[in-house]
Amino acid sequence: MRLSAPTGTDPEQTELGERIRSRRGAVGGPFLVWLRNPALGDHLEALGTYCLRESSLPLRLRELALLVAARHFDAQHSWNAHLAKAVDAGVDPAALERLARGEEPRFSSPDEEVLHRFASEALEGHFVGDETFAAGLEHFGEPGLVDLVAALGTFSMFAMALNVFQVDLQADQDPPFPDIKGFRRM
Q1: Are 91 and 64 in contact (CB under 8 A)?
Q2: Which domain holds residue 29?
Q3: Are residues 64 and 40 in the same domain?
Q4: How many helices (H) and strands (E) does the chain have?
Q5: 38 and 127, same structural domain?
Q6: CB-based contacts of 65, cutoff 8 Å, min separation 6
Q7: What is the full per-residue pLDDT of the chain (186 aa) written as tens digits?
Q8: For a surface tag, which of 54, 58, 70, 175 has the fewest beta carbons within 10 Å of its beta carbon?
């Protein structure tokens, strides 16, 4: 990682680290970055918790949104951390393998297909077409669409932090996007 290890002498870092550990079991991934600015990190941890654990979207779609953002930003750490969670939540592993390779995933579930199309349009073109918006509204409702856009923004920010600060890949996992350079194992 490009940042030095926290010294352990900052009480705000210690408090945030303990809170993250109590909720998530460990301080890893983007949270290693957020510790460097505990005031911001506290808000980002709460936002991330909402988007991934509390939003109106089902867990399967929350995990899929995270993986779509991770793939868009080539965030290998994030992909590795959430692939099994998405599969356990019911996302088709074959579709995720295609997504990882940069191919059309061809999700079998209509709501997953709509989420992927909506997220792809938003992330790649920065807008969503009328037809895609209408499909998203039909599948997720207004609260769900608001949650989806917030989740995509949050997961994109987390992915950028992982990449910019070069948070190392997990030691026990292979790079999911082997053509991406610049990352090391933990």
Answers
A1: yes
A2: 11-52
A3: no
A4: 8, 0
A5: no
A6: 57, 115, 119, 148, 151, 152, 155
A7: 888 877 778 899 999 999 889 888 888 888 889 899 999 999 999 999 999 999 999 999 999 999 999 999 999 989 999 999 999 999 999 999 999 999 999 999 999 999 999 999 999 999 999 999 999 999 999 999 999 999 999 999 999 999 899 887 666 767 777 666 555 544
A8: 54
